[in-house]
Amino acid sequence: MYAPAFDLAATALGVVPESIPDWLAAILVLLATWYGSRLVTEASRPRVIERMQRRSVAEVLLRAVRATAMLLAVFVVFGIYGVELSDLVLSATIISAVIGVTLAPVASDVVGGFFILTNRPYEVGDMIELADREESGHVIDVTLRYTKIRTLENTFLVVPNSTIRERDVINLSADDERTRVSLEFLVTYEGDLEEARELLADAAAETDGVIEGGPGISMGDTKYPVQPQAFIESFADHGIRLQLDFWVERPYLPRIMRSNIYEAVWDRLEDADVEIAYPHTHLVFDETSGTARVAVERGRDDARPETVLQDGEGGSDGGTNVAD
Questions:
Q1: Going by C-beta distance under 8 Å and a sequence separation of 6 or more, which residues neighbour residue 139?
Q2: What 3 state SS string does the chain have?
Q3: What are the pLDDT digits (tens) for 67-97?
Q4: Residue 166: is it exposed, middle or buried by C-beta count within 10 angstroms (0-12/13-18/19+)?
Q5: Among residues 17, 105, 124, 204, which one has the fewest Cβ atoms lying within 10 Å of its Cβ?
């Protein structure tokens, strides 16, 4: 026996319900509901997003509307095949128990999705960074199960909401997109320290995308200067460690800025009394180093000097080492 809703729809279309097989009626109901709900949600999406003012919540609401419509269509199909409501309730109870056990991870993702939608740590369009992966990207979709991110390498990263709640997520687009970046340099002790600091600051200030100056950026009760500055970080083993701090206009620019600043610093080093430090190894020979006698055999084309270590130095076997 057909469901009343399907009878009404079939009569309105001028089709005799008894002339349609049950399987065909079920397919028509499901297809019509799927396609109709899709048209309705697509047509109403711009208005819903504008009214909700949060795209992620609006998308979840539209998906819920489609899911509800499909659930009602399934009940209509059950009515077509004469399934009683009491049978459905009993079956739904058993199926729910099985689903609750087998789909526990999915339920955890859904709970995490509700937390994200409620707390709003990020929104669609924001640029975030996963601290544990050191990977950044733009949020392109937030559902109840996962967050979809397009990384700066133009790849997609799908993170389950149950795990993203436990991670340190840095929102680079919240309130103010300007981002501070730090670079470390190691200069020699013999160079001009003040000139090195000025060289780093000037190289950053003349790089496109770096904020040269202007009003300070307020974070809490503290206002930070925006012009590039180089600070002495520490006295290291091989040189003086300097830290260059500067601000960029967009959060997705730091990698480009680093490369450009490194290049600008390299170009300025040639005419400056500044040298980038690197480890040096010095071999020192004194009175404790021992002595060596060098003998050269003549008359042979392949003659090579022989170095004979004395006093057993260089090995317990007292052998002869040939030096190139």
A1: 122, 123, 124, 125, 126, 127, 128, 147, 148, 149
A2: CCCHHHHHHHHHCCCCHHHCCHHHHHHHHHHHHHHHHHHHHHHHHHHHHHHHCCHHHHHHHHHHHHHHHHHHHHHHHHHHCCCCHHHHHHHHHHHHHHHHHHCHHHHHHHHHHHHHHHHCCCCCCCEEEECCCCEEEEEEEECCCEEEEEECCCCEEEEEHHHHCCCCEEECCCCCCCEEEEEEEEECCCCCHHHHHHHHHHHHHCCCCECCCCCCEEECCEEECCCCEEEEEEECCCCEEEEEEEEECCCCCHHHHHHHHHHHHHHHHCCCCCCECCCCCCCCCCCCCCCEEEECCCCCCCCCCEEEECCCCCCCCCCCEECC
A3: 888 888 887 887 777 766 666 665 666 666 6
A4: exposed
A5: 105
Q: Is the overall model pTM greater than 0.85, yes or no?
A: no
pLDDT tens for residues 256-305?
Answer: 778 889 999 999 988 889 999 888 777 777 777 666 666 767 665 555 55
